[in-house]
Amino acid sequence: MLAALSWLLALELFALASYPLAYRVFSRLPDRGWALSKPLGLLLVGLGTWGIGLSHVIVNSRLSVALALGIVALLSWRAARGRSAEMRAFLRAHLNLVL
């Protein structure tokens, strides 16, 4: 049970880290990429972890996952610059769509 909860928490963290990037890329969708932020976050963090392990910088571990998550969050932050107020307004206005 604890393993399932930790996976769910990790997936939510990946989704939150990748949502600004999904918002920018999938802005034409009604949910602005909210539904795709979980698979996108899992894909980007997974590819980042794989790339870090492949380059032999760090062996595959929680540290490499955290580093990949940080890179995804940094890329998303850069993609969302100047749009944070727009994203917050969308989330407030469409809370029922997001939940």
Detail the topology: elements first, then pairings.
Layout: H1 2-25, H2 34-54, H3 62-80, H4 84-93, H5 95-98
Gist of the model:
Helix content is 79%, strand content 0%.
User: What is the arithmetic mean of pLDDT?
Assistant: 90
Total number of beta strands: 0
Mind summarizing the main beta sheet?
Answer: none
Helix/sheet category: mainly alpha
Radius of gyration: 14 Å
Count structural domains. 1
SSE string:
HHHHH
Total of helices: 5
End-to-end CA span: 24 Å
Low-pLDDT windows of residues: none
The helix content, as a percent range, equals over 70%
Tell the overall outline: globular
Task: Note the beta-strand portion.
Answer: under 5%
Word description of this protein:
There is one protein chain. The chain is mainly α and 99 residues long. The two termini are 24 Å apart. The model has no long low-confidence stretch (mean pLDDT 90).
Main attributes of the structure:
mainly alpha, 79% helix
